[in-house]
Amino acid sequence: MTDRDGHRDRAMEERLRADIEDLAVRIGRSVTLMEICGAHTCAIGRCGIRDILPDSVRIVSGPGCPVCVTSGRDVDTALSLAGRKNVIFTACPDMLRVPGSGGGSLQGLCAAGADVRAVGSAAQAVEIARANPRREVISMGTGFEASAHEAAFMLETCRRQDIRNLSVFTTYKDMKPAIRALMEDSELAVDGFLCPGHAKAGGGYAEIPARGRAAVVTGFETLDILEGIRMALAQIARRSFAVERQGAGAEGPETGTPGDGLTDEVFMRVPAEWRGLGVIPDSGLVLRNRYAAFNALARFDVPILDSSDIMGCMCGSILRGVASPGECPLFRHACNPENPIGPCMVSREGACFMEYAVR
Ligand code: SF4
């Protein structure tokens, strides 16, 4: 179900709102649903979904923004790598403005003379490496499994074409172990998840209903999201859980990794540090030994850095769904899109940025 011609179908919206009200009354307690995709964070904020729900139904943003969940230690490591001599450091545009624990950023390094470039894809880093054969090009890999798959393809291309001046600093992550960690979080007590249907956020949602939570794969328009919420509440009301798909808007693979096996050939799973969620077993994707020559950490001998959280920033709690942007004392005044203090305000998919944009 999508909004026809970009307009909201008010009658359908009213019907869904009435159904949601009825279900909330039937459930008879507060319910927390979590969305786990940056595109859902944007859509829910843009459409004002929170404003039209009953008070007892809370939608929280989870760790769906890959820039936001990148740990402070990884940001500091990126800064260490980008400052090396003869290096061209590439990263996604939002990552350039994320502050490290000392307050510096890739953008700041760039202003100070480092060669830091924003790229939209891993393939662009290969082009830069080809064009600069005497320079070392480091590609910071940020994202979930679909992004890792793109990087795997890039590395296989480099291996075949004998491109030796490119390496990867991987912070790629698998969302599934993070969902598991969230379900074990007693402070959060999440009742269900709104999941993206496309591959970007990972997938493999079967464990959610197995652990007694609702799971609905839903689209990104107002009516899609309202229907997804209605379906999740219906599962909670009847205490019967499954992974359900909401309409045509949720079409697409939900398994996360394109099925050619390349991601698993290039990457292996290790414990990884997530901002706000700590170290989660098997959630990090690092290069297998066969691809060790492309491992920037090995090539540049980076020490393990002692990093700390950004002073006063509540991004960690927001990414866990236990705080909302408005609860951060820095929100809007000290921290805003022109002067972002934490990654959730830097990233266009961040909960703080979206809250600032719509309020
Ligand atoms: S408002 Fe700024 S400082 Fe506060 S949690 Fe969000 S990003 Fe961090």
Percentage of residues in helical conformation? 25-40%
CATH topology category name of the domain at 4-64 and 176-250: Rossmann fold
Enumerate the spans where pLDDT stays under 50 for 5 or more consecutive residues: 252-256
The largest sheet, given as strand count, sense and whether it forms a barrel, is:
5 strands, parallel
Q: Give the count of helical stretches.
A: 15
Q: C-alpha Rg, in Å?
A: 21 Å
- Indicate the overall shape: globular
How do the strands line up in the largest sheet?
2-1-7-8-9
Bound molecules: iron/sulfur cluster
By DSSP, the count of extended strands is 11
- Spell the H/E element sequence: HEHEHHEHEHEHEHEHEHEHEEHHHH
Give the helix/strand class: alpha/beta
Q: Please, could you describe this protein's structure?
A:
With 359 residues, the protein is α/β, with parallel strands linked by helices. It has a domain at 4-64 and 176-250: 3-Layer(aba) Sandwich (Rossmann fold). 37% of the residues lie in helices and 17% in strands. The protein has 15 helices and 11 strands. The strands form 3 sheets. It has a 5-stranded parallel sheet with strand order 2-1-7-8-9. Helix 2 (38-46) links the parallel strand 1 (31-35) and strand 2 (57-61). Helix 1 runs parallel beside helix 10 (222-238) and helix 2 packs parallel to helix 15 (351-358). It starts with 9 loop residues before the first helix and ends with a helix.
